[in-house]
Write a structure and sequence with these properties.
Number of strands: 2
CATH superfamily of the largest domain: putative protein disulfide isomerase domain
Number of helices: 9
Radius of gyration: 16 Å
CATH class of the largest domain: Mainly Alpha
Strand order of the largest sheet: 1-2
Helix content: 55-70%
Number of domains: 2
Length: 166
């Protein structure tokens, strides 16, 4: 599995949304919160909706890309989600992200400096544009080698089954 961080903001904007569809459509948002609460409980995870949603994930996405050189993009990404939705942390806060990087045993100064490089910024723009081209509208989305999209963490098994049949 290849992790490709991207930004949802530009994708939402292209669809005419100024925020998450869960905010645009309040009934859907209320259902999503209840659904996530049930799923988290069933999996033995804490869930706390952050005070600000959606959060500005720009720095987190850039750090995730910078982390790819070290092979820990998946670990970092999971830690960001756990921090945001497990404890309600504000992932747009660089101090929160620095703490996550340090907890993973990495040099936060090095990674954060790399995350602000032109190369990482360009990579994030390319990956966001590619996500739009693929028709991605939310995260996580799994794309199989034949281009089939599966949206939502509950679709991973279906995506793997589909890919294994190719």
């Amino acid at each position: 599995m290849i992790w490709r961080p991207f930004l949802l903001g530009p994708i939402f904007e292209a669809q005419g949304w100024s925020t998450s569809p869960f905010n645009v459509y309040p009934a859907k948002g209320r259902y999503m919160m209840r659904d996530i609460t049930r799923i988290a409980a069933a999996r033995g995870h804490a869930f706390q909706m952050p005070a600000v949603f959606p959060a500005n994930g720009l720095a987190a996405a850039r750090i995730a890309i910078a982390a790819d050189d070290h092979g820990w993009t998946p670990r970092f990404s999971r830690a960001v989600f756990e921090s945001q939705f497990g404890s309600g942390a504000g992932i747009s806060d660089i101090a929160v992200l620095r703490a996550i990087v340090c907890a993973l045993g990495c040099d936060a100064d090095e990674i954060i400096a790399r995350a602000t490089s032109d190369a990482v910024k360009a990579c994030l723009r390319e990956q966001t544009a590619r996500a739009q081209q693929l028709g991605i509208f939310g995260a996580p989305t799994f794309v199989t080698p034949d281009g089939e999209l599966f949206w939502g963490d509950d679709r991973l098994e279906q995506a793997l089954d589909w890919a294994n049949k190719l």
